[in-house]
Amino acid sequence: MRSWKVWLLLVVFVSVTPDLMAQCAMCRGTVESTVSNGRSVVASELNFGILYLLVVPYLIVSAIGYLWYRNSKREHERRLEITGRVKRALSQM
């Protein structure tokens, strides 16, 4: 039940965000000067670089979290298997 609330909150935040291609003041000044010189490719590449720097840490953390979850799930299954074996062995005595 909480899962859909988290997704709803995430969708609301993303849809309310006015501009995802934001830049710092110095980057903006550099982009404006290059655009005024006729080189608009620099602006799009800078925005792509900003998004890359934004996404990569989240991907790394989520990959580590997934691996941790998967390994803990396997360990839990192993413990349940061992517990079942012990119970069966004790019940046969």
Write up what this structure looks like:
With about 90 residues, this protein is mainly α. Helices cover about 85% and strands about 0% of the residues. It is built from three helices and no strands.
Order of helices and strands: HHH
Amount of helix: over 70%
Number of strands: 0
What share of residues are in beta strands? under 5%
What are the segments in which pLDDT stays under 50 over at least 5 consecutive residues? none
Instruction: For the record, give the distance between the C-alpha atoms at the N and C termini, rounded to a whole number.
Output: 45 Å
Radius of gyration: 25 Å
What is the approximate shape?
elongated
Reported for the largest beta sheet, the result is:
none
Give the topology, please.
Elements: H1 2-16, H2 25-36, H3 41-92
Helix pairs in contact: 2-3
Keywords:
mainly alpha, 3 helices, elongated, 0% strand, 93 residues
In summary, what is this structure?
With 93 residues, the protein is an all-alpha fold.
